[in-house]
Amino acid sequence: MAFIEPVTLTGRHVQLEPLAPGHHDALVAAASDGELWKLWYTSVPSPQTMRNWLETALSMRAHDDLAFAIRDMRDGSIVGSTRYFRVDAASRRLEIGHTWYARRAQRTGINTEAKLLLLGHAFDALQCIAVEFRTHWMNHQSREAIARLGARQDGVLRNHLRMPDGTLRDTVVFSIIDSEWPTVKRHLQFKLER
């Protein structure tokens, strides 16, 4: 049995459902809202690369990764994707990342509730001791969003990755550890109640 089994996580504002080939067209529409692939410091797939991106994400199940389509419960539309990856079952750690949202879903309660659901499943069901988040140094919006969740910055991995355009990425690493989870959980619940 895999450490992470496919699961659907449902809240009031958002539903995270295991990514499937049938999500392709809805994901193209979501990424097209804001032409997210044009942000040079992200890896959001374009309409032309979405099929390959989707197939790669699905193939990573062999490594315990679990990608989700993010559904907006207000209208039922798919507004982005996120995943568990870099899963280390022996150490009970994982990363939440590869997250992107249609422009209309950004800075709404959707991300807050999605992270609450993902973190809750990681800490409460999977008994993780730590959950990481990583982002490009230049992605200030993502860095601010991760910090607003209650994650703490662990450090910066300099010249960590080569980007598709050949530039080198400095990666900012954040984490939440199990002893912090009750406070982070309450913080996210409070944000959703407002």
UniProtKB/TrEMBL annotation:
Residues 14-152 form the N-acetyltransferase domain. The lineage of its organism: Bacteria, Pseudomonadati, Pseudomonadota, Betaproteobacteria, Burkholderiales. It holds the Pfam family Acetyltransf_3. This is Protein N-acetyltransferase, RimJ/RimL family.
